[in-house]
Prior knowledge:
FAD/NAD(P)-binding domain, 2 domains, FAD/NAD-bd_sf
Amino acid sequence: MIKFVPEPHLLDSPRGRDWPRLGAPRTPGRAGAPANSADVVIVGAGPAGLAVASALWHHGVRDVVVLDRDGRPCGRFFDRIDRLGQRVLRSPYEHHPGVEGYRDCELLDFARLHWSRLTDVERREIRMAQAGHRSVVPVDVFEAYCDHLVTSHHVAERTWQASVREVLPTAEAVTVRANRFTVTAPHVVLCLGEERRSAPEAWWGGGTPPRGVSYWDDPVPARGSRRIVVGAGLTAAHLLTGSLEAGHEVHWVVRETEERYQCADVNSSFFRPEGRARFDGVDRSGRLELMGRHRRASIMFEFRPRLQQAEAEGRLVVHRGESVKEVGDGSGGVVCRLESGRLIEADSAVLALGTTPSIGGGLLPPDVVAERDGWPALDERTLGYTGAPRVSVVGAAAGLVLGPAARNIDGHRVATARVAASIAHSLRHERVPVVAGA
């Protein structure tokens, strides 16, 4: 069987183009304080939070407070993307934070509206999407579309810069305590995303990494011409190609015996209703097995020709089937000792060790999270915590209910549809008086 491998030029969409806006450019979230009560508080303003805020707007729920540590809708999301030098998204055009079932501009519609600003390659990808084939989305288009959603659904004026400290649910309401204020609402939605996975303590004793070592979402030290990249996923692929383009000699440490290339971050069957039904149809142990199998690190096919060429030319050295044992300071740089005993010396090292879902630990009481096997206890119909039904989740934390696609933007939309409808129904039929600061 012949396997089609997309060409690497699909990764090279321009970044930083000027796009028409509905209103003024986005500004950081408001630094003051919102009212001390609202109908809904959304914690997190990334793509999941934007999807929830937009859906609630269509349901007529406008008294919404969005709290975000950065204060800019999707700000942290795009900062991370730009730190990696990423120019396209793995998600196809049908995956976006817009709202289905309402008169709303979807991502493909938005791209076609701005046809004249697209490259020939990007236009071909749109034609592929219209024909029902796999396609890639330029980060530039996706960011402009998110900006369109923010403006058209009035999300920016509902977003406040804040670090949430506690989420305290009662039977009547939920109080959210942030660093500068407190807001109480009948419903809270946690859109916390995922956090980077830390290196094992044994690598250097825990705590702050040694000099010259950084994680993928931190600034990479601009040191010398030799670099080590540890990790097997899409983030590592972006770090590798960026380092190679900068002229570095790169060592890539991959724990598996071979890299894993595929079109999407999870099997595409899980994006479709029949795929989700397949996940629903198994017990907890079956779901855990599926999650473990389909959340393995993988890389878009487009990277393979570039990485193979760099390896053939000796600019990239791949240490397959190797695990890191220790990382420390070397003579003028970093030394990485592998389990095999092999030593790699470089000027810097970047760790891309994956991410873990933020499930509400540290914000909610432990008995509410009811963590088991790394997942919270959720109502499968509403995605509310079983121990606190007024608090819901959208994003990776819903993985054991929605399957591997929960961490993907399309999974956000599926979760948002359940959560927004449930909250709107409750607010219409079960109005609860809220006592601020309760």
